[in-house]
């Protein structure tokens, strides 16, 4: 893959009109998974449809290995209202996209269980199949809550799945809120990967394969 850079944001684009956005590096303290995502995307490039890949959504945060960026902002909290240069550059990069499927890879540094957010309801049969694939990798599925002490993340998780329907607002907390409100995304999946698990690469691959079935 030949990466490009625009106003400090590194990205790769296949095709003129991406159907899919793959993103990681939103929080710099979740840096362990970044090389794995790069490797898997490179491996799958030939079978992927037109897509954009942003390996480090917040490069200054990744450089610092901190949750906040160089301006002291967690870009996934109040993204719509933030106006620091890095956030504006990311908005500018995303803005030409129209009604694409977005997926983002995060690491859960607290739990060694897998779960993901979905802004639409996944059919029960498809969800059961995906859960089975994850379990076959010996990756446990989380049930409980993401972060009960964070009002923005106090969502119930059932067997690795969070039904996040209704996430769209102009000045939303999350990147997907803002992007869905403006029509850049039609759906967004946020995968929380247990970074220490030995099957991380296969788990990332399974997540991308799930996304492909939704296009």
Helix residue percentage? 25-40%
CATH architecture label name: 3-Layer(aba) Sandwich
Instruction: Give the CATH class.
Output: Alpha Beta
The count of DSSP E runs of length 2 or more, i.e. the number of strands, is 10
Q: How confident overall, as mean pLDDT?
A: 93
Shape: globular
Number of helices: 6
**Strand line-up of the largest beta sheet:** 1-2-4-3-5-10-6-9
CATH topology type: Aminopeptidase
What attributes does this structure have?
eight-stranded mixed sheet; 215 residues; two-stranded antiparallel sheet; alpha/beta; Succinylglutamate desuccinylase; globular; 6 helices
Description:
The chain has 215 residues and is of the alpha/beta class. It has a single domain, classed as Zn peptidases (Aminopeptidase). The protein has six helices and ten strands. An eight-stranded mixed sheet has the order 1-2-4-3-5-10-6-9, sandwiched between helices. A two-stranded antiparallel sheet has the order 7-8. Helix 1 crosses helix 6. The longest helix has 14 residues. The radius of gyration is 16 Å and the shape is globular. The two termini are 22 Å apart. The relative contact order is 0.19.
Could you outline the blueprint of secondary structure elements for this entry?
Blueprint (H helix, E strand, L loop, with lengths): L3 E3 L2 E6 L5 E5 L9 H11 L6 E4 L4 H6 L20 H10 L5 E8 L7 E4 L5 H13 L7 E2 L10 E2 L3 E3 L11 H7 L3 E9 L6 H14 L2
Parallel strand pairs: 3-4, 3-5, 5-10, 6-9
Antiparallel strand pairs: 1-2, 2-4, 6-10, 7-8
Helix pairs in contact: 1-6
